[in-house]
Fold:
Amino acid sequence: MYLAPLNYDRYFKKVFSELTIAKRFLEDFLDVEIQEIEFLQNKKSISDDARYVEFDFRCKIDGFYVIIDMQQWYKTDVVQRFYVYHALNSALQLEKLPKKIIPLVGNKSRKVHDYAELLPVITIIWMVHDTLGFSDDYIGYTLAPENVTEFIKKDVVWGNSTIKELLAERDKQKGLLTNHNRNLDFLSSNRLIYAFQKNIVKNKKYEKYYDWFELADKTLRKVEEKREYAKYEQDKIFTEVIRRLLKSLKEPESEEYITNYEEYLHGVQQYDKSIRREGREEGRQEGYSIAVTKLQPQLEDAREKEKEAREKEKEARLILAKKMKQYGEQINEIKKMTGLSDDEIIGL
Structure:
């Protein structure tokens, strides 16, 4: 029973467009019980320069705005890009933020946004292959007082203080974290979470979220044995996930989409491997103690090889974009998968 890969953008969106599925995933991953969930528009205009940003999935749950985004392959800008998405999910709330009236001199008044109504944001980046160098299932980031970070980093404190002194300092830092004056706890309520499918499947902690990533991994590896999916079919939500993936696989040109996607993914991974391999080889041959001037010819050669690799990689992206365009894929989807610009896609 071969299923459409849940990790591929098209199929991820088809599955998570059903709110009951998205609700269950968020409950399992965040370990919460959600009372209400509201789907939010996933494509938003921002400015003339950044015409729009498109999230894979965006919703509002009890007291939070949430983004889920799938990352299939290694990208150098993954940290900065999702920080921007994370911030935008706060800024986009301005559209619906209520106004309050500020009294001015001379019986005048002015309407301003009531920022006290701003809700925290949770951004979940579902990393398929990349682990960012971590071995944990996931890593989460929140805003915390700098003093707390400094306390943890100071080796001299940990090496020279008694247990009593450390506990006293710890209590002091806890006081900073539990200061809720003027809603300071809002800062730490915002969370940016990187979930690592590769680690989750490997670690097998059997947390509630494990089945989601295990199922995704099986569809990615094209596991066909029906018995491998038997346990999921005992759950009505996972049964619906599987039904949608099966239905998607039968759609016209779905097989071609998967083939093109895999070809492009393989090309990107090979490009990254070749650059890393060449770097390691040069390091072994020359050693790190050699002067920069002596390395200059090798560096120039490496740059030329990298340039050629980039050109080949660009050519592969153009071929994929052309194929996607031929069978009616939306420009936004083509841009997200290939990284090409509007003009480059339109010109194909």
In short: The radius of gyration is 24 Å.
